[in-house]
Design goal:
Layout lengths: L1 H15 L12 H5 L13 H7 L4 H23 L15 H14 L11 H12 L3
Helix pairs in contact: 4-5, 4-6, 5-6
Length: about 140
């Protein structure tokens, strides 16, 4: 069952396809953080706004880093079963700010991802890791 879930996640990522860089103006994180959330039913923030706020708020930074760490641990477990979603260098030790920087660079490359609600933070961090460390 675990392999089926990993295969489903991999297919989902592949089907979403890369963002065509030539079609979009290169935005900064500050540009993205100005956007209002698509839905404010929960009084939510966009992912770009959370990343921007994480520069001043260590709790938000810790949430981003812990989410990324969880994804990397799941990747390690899946790798032991023969399925890798991301392939970072073997001896790379991730810091909280490194995880945020990976996410931030991804949002600049794929600005529509930064407009999503905070509830999809884990999905966007996974995509950022796959983008940064493809297998």
């Amino acid at each position: 069952m675990h392999l089926h879930l990993a295969a489903f996640v991999a297919l989902l990522l592949i089907s979403s396809g890369p963002v065509a860089a030539a079609d979009q103006k290169k935005l900064t994180l500050d540009d993205l953080a100005k956007d209002e959330p698509a839905s404010s039913a929960e009084g939510g923030f966009t992912i770009a706004q959370l990343v921007r706020a994480s520069h001043d708020d260590k709790v938000i930074l810790a949430v981003i880093a812990a989410t990324g760490d969880g994804i990397l641990w799941a990747n390690t477990y899946a790798g032991a079963k023969g399925v890798n979603l991301v392939c970072p260098p073997q001896n790379l030790a991730f810091t909280d700010t490194m995880m945020r920087d990976i996410l931030e660079r991804y949002l600049v490359d794929a600005p529509d991802e930064g407009k999503g609600q905070r509830v999809v933070l884990g999905n966007v961090i996974l995509k950022a890791l796959v983008h940064t460390f493809p297998c």
